[in-house]
Amino acid sequence: MAQQTLDISRRSATTTPSPSQCHTPEVAKLIDVSKCIGCKACQVACMEWNDTRDNIGTNHGVYDNPTDLTENSWTVMRYAEVETERGLEWLIRKDGCMHCADPGCLKACPAPGAVVQYSNGIVDFHEENCIGCGYCITGCPFNIPRLSQKDSKVYKCTLCSDRVAVGLEPACVKTCPTGAIVFGTKEDMLRHAEGRVADLKSRGFAKAGIYDPQGVGGTHVLYVLQHADRPELYSALPRDPSIGPLVQLWKGAAKPVASLALAAIGVGALVHYVTKGPNEVSDEIEKEFEDEK
């Protein structure tokens, strides 16, 4: 893939427009669930490249290890045994940030520049600006960001933006032994996914399809699913994710109302000052204070 710039198109809690940006095609990572063997090489590659290490976990009788995302495990494999019309199936899904086109984390974040979106669609966290409030976690419809107990900063997958900037593919893509994870422009990935869906349908998966939910404006991590009509089979992948109503309210109607209220308070204070003048302490009260001393 050609070298890309990391021009920022959006910043959290910032109304100042971003400087002009180079034209950069949107990128996407495509995860073909039907090709995944659950080897966890992507988990290891993610930790290696980002220099993170998680605690050694405990066996809970399942293959999931760790059992959930953490501030050090930015991607995890999730395994599910489900009954379908084809019988018992083992469905494996690589979980991590979906890099939404309309990111709820960015909308919810009150810290200027803590969450950014590059012109190629990647959503990244700048921890040096993070205040540890956790609002991004509330705003994410996929429950992805994790707050570190050590430094009170929030972490998640960056889609290896540093590698992408110099023309490399993300570490998880580089290491996948079956080609289940591929990376490129979103347009190319959608075209590739359509070919994979056609192949799956020819092999009896009539409901195969692409997971690119429009409730968040589409995502820059796509799935090819054998049962696209039931995404919840894949360890509770949301059927129709969207930004929560509280975040919409906070960034929608509530913000102009709060601005108007502040403006009204300012006008009221000015009117009071003009009509009543400044508060003055009478000579009697001032003398009482001096006597008490």
Automatic annotation (TrEMBL):
This is Formate dehydrogenase subunit beta. [4Fe-4S] cluster 1 binds at C36, C39, C42, C176. One of its GO terms (molecular function) is 4 iron, 4 sulfur cluster binding. One of its GO terms (biological process) is formate oxidation. PANTHER family: FORMATE DEHYDROGENASE, NITRATE-INDUCIBLE, IRON-SULFUR SUBUNIT. Keywords: 4Fe-4S, Cell membrane, Electron transport, Iron, Iron-sulfur, Membrane, Metal-binding, Repeat, Transmembrane, Transport. It holds the Pfam family Fer4_11. Residues 27-46, 121-150 form the 4Fe-4S ferredoxin-type domain. It comes from the Bacteria. It is found in: Cell membrane. Its main location: membrane. Residues 11-20 have a biased composition (Low complexity).
